Fold this protein.
Amino acid sequence: DNMPGANPLLMDKQGRLFVGQVFLGDALWELDPSKKVSLSDQRPSDSSLPRLIRENIGGFNGFDVDPQNSDRLCGPVWFKSDIACININTGEIENIIHVEDAVFSAVNFDRTGRMFASDMNRGHIHLVNPSTHTSEIVVRASPAIDNLAPAHTSNTMYWSNCGSASLYSFDTDTYAITTIHQGFLSGVSGLYMANDLLFVADTFGVKSVDLNGWEEGKGEWNAETEGEGESRGRRVWKEELISLSEPLHFFLPTAVAVNKDRHEIILSSKISGDVIILIMLDEEYKKLSEFKMNMPIDIEILNYHGDFLITDKASGTLSLVNRYSLQPTIVASKLEGPTCIALAPGKAIAYVTESDGGSITRVNLAISEQTRIITGLSRPMGIAVSETGNLYVVEVDAKRVIEVMVDGSVVRTVASELEISGPELLIRDVVLDVKRGRLYLSGTETNSIQTVLLSKTVEEIHPEL
């Protein structure tokens, strides 16, 4: 243990085990698979295991054994846009290629000994010639290619896409692509509705879902039809990865907001502390501006000009950000883990969930007055406001959605036993679809988007699929 950032693992044909530290560390080690040890600050001697082969490489990620020289591991140097080979006995490194703006994630050799490398940033797979230190792009796919794996008895090379949780393969001779499993979401977090589109802040990008259309003849799953022999409704979603000029793999978006009038998308990242504004130009979104906060979470657009509210969990504040100056003005403070925001009809009142304190606070934006209206909730996160002013609140630890009056009294449990737990870097958001009478929830436990029919009188949910 005590090996932060341990990521790529490989055992060669001689039974030697190698592990790389990436992101939270930067080193290549040889370990003894027969015993457990704890790495201390004092480096072990060169003759013992665990043995430090090389450090400060630049992120030596998914590597493979060089079939021409079993004493070398060849792999991507993540933060340097390089492919390199390292001698496992001496630590000597040889740079094979450098491709500007590439983020190489994996290197593998096919059964004939040809080297292939995946570029996570652009979704390309390169055929690399180590002798000439050159490469050519042989597969052009979607960004977020994560791993490569060769078949040992055919000319097939598999790759995974961590941005869509998908699996593909290609023929290493013809480069023909086969889809094995088509996913969509990788780490769903914040949600935002604009007209008939549901926008999703996913771990490796921004995605949109067309909310129109249920399968013909299926019907909706509700208290009246379920249990009477009629099959459940199954959503037919048109899913789309938003085209971005700059991939977001290092941004890790937490929340998203969309200004349809201005053709802008605003994203926050709890991990990086960045808030960025994207604008549609030439049929793709390009970065327009960005600024830093401590730990930005949720965003709500306030007006046509694009001014927006944003919560900062680290500072315990809700701020109003001027769209042009990008200067935040604090309108509520001393909040206990401010997470999600909902605007009341008329947009003069905002409601903020306090996930650490188990509370909801109402903020009068005109006079910066804040009032805590309810306490004792089980880690509230997502919040939405109905046309009548009632609140729908996601209680993560209770795994339910409740309806709350504006005075703080709980009306009812809308849905329970929800699959909404998950990693802390994600938020469990909820948005209200008035047109269809539904709530949409980001269900991080099953990595799906769930729907709740508000017309039901029993506590049931309808999952994404």
